[in-house]
Structure formats: C-alpha cells, structure tokens
Amino acid sequence: MTSPQPEKLVIWAVSDGKAGNAAPSLGLAEAVARRRPAEIVVKTVGWKGFSGRLPWWLVPAPRLWLDGASGMSPPWPDLWIATGRATLPLDMAVRRWSGGRTFVVHVQDPRAPASAFDLVVAPRHDGIEGPNVLKITGSPHRVTPDRLAADRARFAATIDPLPHPRTAVLVGGRSKAHDLSPERAAALADQIGAAIEREGGSLLLTFSRRTPEPAKAAFRARLGALPGQMWDGEGDNPYFAFLDAADVILATEDSANMATEAAAVGRPLHILPLDGGSPKFRRFHADLQSRGVARPFNGDLTPWPCEPLNETERAADEIVRRLELRRQR
C-alpha cells in the first residue's frame, strides 16, 4: 500500500519587490516546492503614504494601509515566506488572521521578537538566537544547477568561445554601508586587469543597479580591451550564465546576496573591497572564509578546491520538517 501524497501547499513569497528581498523569499519558496507539491504566489507589499516607513508596532491595522495592488486578502496561504522590513506588520498579523493555520517564516533578522514567527531564517552574521531561529551563512537564493544550465545554454553562443580561465566579476556599488568611488573602481579595475593579463583567459563582468555611472566608466576604460563580456543592464541578463561559466568569481563586498549566490556555484570566490564597511559585513565575510569558499582578493587568481555552499536547501529542509511536525500534532 502506497503512502498518500502530501497535499499541495500554497506558498506566498512576500517582499517589497526590491531584488535583494524578493530573491530570498522566492528562492526559499522554490526550494520548499522541490520537496513538497506546491503552488507559489509572489506577493509585493506596497504601503500608502509614510506608513511603510513606520516601525511594525506603529501599524496595528496593516491591511488598512496597504495599496490596492498588494493583494493581501484571504484565503491565507499554508506557508508565508517574507523578507524585508516592509513585510513585518503583515508577518506579525497573518497567523492571527489565518487562525493559526499559516506557517510564517521571516528571512533576515526581523528586529522583533522571534516568537512572533514560526521560524526565522537569519544570516549567522546577524547574531540572532532563539529556539525558532535557523542560522545560515548568507541568505536564501535562486541558484540551482538547472537554472545555471538553462541560462548558460541561452548565452552559449557568446560565452563558450571565450578562453579559460574565465574570471566573473560581480560589481555592486552604493549601499547603506558601502560606496564605490571612481578612484576605488579604477584601482580595482587595474588590479583585476593585471591579474587576468598575467593568468590569461577572459573576463565576464556584470554591473548592478547600484553601480554608479562614474565607477562603470572606470571599469570600462581599464578592462574593455580584455577578451570577454561586460553587461551593463541592456538586454538579457547573463548573470547566472556568467556564474556557471566562470572558473573563478570576484564579487564586491557590499552584497550578501551576491556573495552567497556566487558561493553556491562551487567556484573560488574572491571578495573585492569597497569604500566604507560595517561589522556585520565583516562577520559575514569571515563566515564565508571559515567555510573555505571565499578569500579577500589580493591580485592572485590561483584557484583552490571548494564545494558549493547552499544553505537554501538546509533552510527548506527545516521548514518542511517543522510543517510535518505541525501536521502530526
């Protein structure tokens, strides 16, 4: 006699729509869906006026303050996975609205009592503790072997002819803790260019939405003559194809998501310094280094053996385990 199939889960992946928050929610939802039959619905939180900037405890009736496009109404999902400060007033209320049926997961440190959630999936460098806290290195993401292969196939005609070793360079930019001045960009570009010229091979470089234009210009001026490609936001995004094709990856230090995605590919990861910094990011990079997947970039592209780091799968396993425990009660 075969065991009954699990019922299909309805999962809401909730964020404010910013790439740095939307990807962790959706990536973790997709990982759960690889373990259980599921329907994933992406929900984007939008607030009226200034309400989105208020602390969660000052928004006691959050549905009254949502814009019309947010779509936050019953039937409530089986599993709610949210990332980012903008979701907190809803995260804190949806268990009550659903009569306790919705399992609520918040990604990142909510800066709120962890007991308000069924599970908090927090980066280890955030330093949050608790019985319903799962600490991971970095953040959940959407990197999978299938996605890497699919994107690599889309760009095969332009990437495959490029010589090895291929160096992928992921350039971020301005954030709360970091900046990328033209001077810093020029110095990094000179160091990267010298390393590639010494080792041979080719360059695969991508900018982010946060990369300042003067910094882009500095990279183009110094690295434009190297064999390879630079993507600056026009046309299809080859980001995942670059990750898959790379022999070594360099990523600026301003993005935990970018570094975590790079580490999940299983290539040596070098961290590029920017202007500024914070203790939290220093703890994050130290965590990556302790796992053997990253090192500070010192101009040397010599590879080292490393295994893919994929904490998303571990977080999904924990969610499924807790859902099963709830079902058995």
Largest sheet geometry: 6 strands, parallel
End-to-end gap:
24 Å
Q: What count of helical segments does DSSP give?
A: 10
Q: What is the H/E order?
A: EHEEHEEEHHEEHEHEHEHEEHEH
Question: What name does the CATH topology of the largest domain carry?
Answer: Rossmann fold
Number of strands: 14
What is the number of independent domains? 2
Output the structural class.
alpha/beta
Helix content: 25-40%
Label the overall shape: globular
- CATH superfamily placement of the largest domain: Glycogen Phosphorylase B
* CATH class membership of the largest domain: Alpha Beta
Poorly predicted parts: none
Please explain how this structure is put together.
This protein is of the alpha/beta class. The chain folds into two domains: 9-141 and 311-328, Rossmann fold, CATH 3.40.50; 145-296, Rossmann fold (3-Layer(aba) Sandwich), CATH 3.40.50. 34% of the residues lie in helices and 20% in strands. The chain contains ten helices and 14 strands. The strands form three sheets. Strands 2-1-3-4-5-6 form a six-stranded parallel β-sheet, sandwiched between helices. Helix 3 packs across helix 7 (239-245). The radius of gyration is 21 Å and the shape is globular. The model has no long low-confidence stretch (mean pLDDT 92).
Topology:
Elements: E1 9-15, H1 19-33, E2 38-44, E3 79-83, H2 88-97, E4 103-107, E5 119-123, E6 133-136, H3 145-154, H4 156-159, E7 166-171, E8 178-179, H5 182-199, E9 202-207, H6 213-223, E10 228-231, H7 239-245, E11 248-252, H8 256-263, E12 269-272, E13 275-276, H9 279-290, E14 294-296, H10 311-328
Parallel strand pairs: 1-2, 1-3, 3-4, 4-5, 5-6, 7-9, 7-11, 9-10, 11-12, 12-14
Antiparallel strand pairs: 8-13
Helix pairs in contact: 1-10, 3-7, 5-6
